[in-house]
Design a protein that fits this description.
The structure is a single chain. This protein is α/β, with parallel strands linked by helices and 595 residues long. It has 3 domains: 15-169, DNA polymerase, domain 1, CATH 1.10.150; 174-341, Beta Polymerase, domain 2; 351-591, Metal-dependent hydrolases (TIM Barrel, Alpha-Beta Barrel), CATH 3.20.20. 41% of the residues lie in helices and 13% in strands. It is built from 24 helices and 17 strands. The chain has a 7-stranded parallel beta sheet. The chain has a 5-stranded mixed beta sheet with strand order 2-4-7-6-5, with helices on both faces. Helix 1 packs across helix 5 and helix 21 crosses helix 22. The longest helix has 21 residues, at 17-37. It binds 2'-deoxyguanosine-5'-triphosphate, calcium ion (2 copies) and zinc ion. The site of one calcium ion has 5 residues, from helix 11. Residues 356-440 form the Polymerase/histidinol phosphatase N-terminal domain. Pfam families: DNA_pol_B_thumb (PF14791), HHH_5 (PF14520), HHH_8 (PF14716), PHP (PF02811). Its EC number is 2.7.7.7, 4.2.99.18.
Amino acid sequence: MEDCLWSGRAVKYSDDVARSNDEVAALLQEYADLISITGGDAFRARVYEKAARAVGGHHADVSALDLKGLQEIPNVGKSIAQKVREYFDRGSVAAVEELRAKIPDGVRRLTAIPTLGPKKAMAVYEELGVSSVEELADALRDERLRDLKGFGPKTEENIRHGIELLRSAGGRVQIDVAMELAEDVVAALSAVPGCARCTYAGSLRRMRETIGDIDILAAARQPAPIMRVFTELPYVTEVIGQGGTKTSVRTSRGLNVDLRVVPPDSWGAALQYFTGSKAHNIRTREIAVRQKLKLSEYGLFDVESGEKVVSGTEEEVYARLGLPWIPPTLREDRGEIEAGLRDELPDLVTEADLRGDLHTHTDLTDGLAPLEEMAKAAAAHGYAYYAVTDHAPDLVMQRMTDERMLAQRERVRELDGTYPTKGRRGGLRLLHGTELNIGPEGEVDWPGDFLAGFDLCVASVHSHFRQSRADLTRRLVRACENPYVHIIGHPTTRLIGRRPGIDADLDAVFAACARTGTALEINAHPHRLDLRDEDILRARRHGVKFAVNSDAHAVPHLANTRYGIGTAQRGWLTGDDVINTWPERRLRSFLRKDG
Ligand code: DGT
Ligand code: CA
Ligand code: CA
Ligand code: ZN
């Protein structure tokens, strides 16, 4: 369970000791701040503060320590050790997220500045009414921060530096951060009189897992009014470049936005150009050249006459090149041109194809919402079936027991079929499942007779990420061979920008999945997107089936499946490849391993 608070930052890979320990120290310090800000127990806040300092100064890499090792650090007790493990295993800590969610939006925006903690953010918000990075920069310039208690010249310098860091964040951001901002910009510009069309292009339209900058395209006869509204959007902090039809801006969200305004009769060519990828465009341009056409950002032209070929839509552009329309998620020059020329493009899976979600949590473990709320939301989403898969006991911090699991099962059975589903006949079918932990030897939490009681078992690696390649491979293959395991959850365990995937022989794992009828998850959380697109392409060649799951820990996470579907499309998957697009009967037959 993660929200977007930190995700506006640059995403970088780094795995060194200092980095892990600093991350945890910052997290614990933040938690201490959040406890005080939200009026929690002062003693408890101090306990976390002390632990933060101890972790920050610890000599060994805390990410490599287990619960016992963590508790050997001074001032780190069991509950803190569990939070640290949770952070490395899941990428976030439920208790921290819960408190973060209680903080006003303005304060959250301010804490996007890497050097501004929640306590100081709360102070400037409450004392000065400052609720954006831009306003904070103004307050700094007007020397209004000086009068606040606890704000010295050193603090000012830190904040100034933090704002610079945020603005210059040259790195890439996660797709959800970019998507939220892009949808906002598109909505604002579409409302401008004279704007005939507006959409986002670039890597975001191709649904890449991280986004360098946002490319917005608008069609209008008069660019000026659209440009003006664009530069005046509240989160635009600086105009970097401006020409007649192009404007580039920095935003307070940690990424830049490029806007192009083109005449309506060039829309198709411009959209095709700015969607990319560059590699795909090079191929389409070559095809154009062979047909005595010139394809550029300005449109499609006849080379001999120099005349513009009307290209109102992308379909027209592709048709002119002798190609069917190619879905943006395929435009990476990974064979889509050849497949298009042969008219063999895959019939890609879409969000509308999904009939259910097969990996979700409730507040019985680390989810935020009770079973009833999650199920109700799933029904409202239009799903036909929905699997509840809370954590199994080996993830000790989740305190699962047989009794609690069986009590949940009873409740799931009572609720099965009772939630009317939007646009479908019959109520939402609930499956009772669990997310098992794949142990260091490939073993899972429960013996077969207990596992047999579940409708569905997801099995995931949550620990011992640094075993040898041979061990990690054997571990995953064993999990596949377990007759009660149906889906391997977030198969590589990577966290985008934070933790690389485990070093296993994926081809061996994919072969085992195909052989045993075990599906691979495409975990749709934007921090994970695991499997990633390239691995999906490989797995598909082995004949593996997939499940696009939200791994939701709260109701809003159910909607993350859009990113999972984007990733599945980038892996060329069709509905037939994805088990949770199948009718319930076919799914149940797969789960019984009927073949
Ligand atoms: P990003 O921003 O790094 O996530 O990736 P893109 O693909 O959005 O790249 P960006 O923003 O530099 O450019 C947007 C699109 O514009 C790109 O996908 C294709 C097109 N484009 C940009 N520069 C070139 C170029 O030099 N040649 C060609 N053929 N196309 C280009
Ligand atoms: Ca871009
Ligand atoms: Ca760009
Ligand atoms: Zn999960």
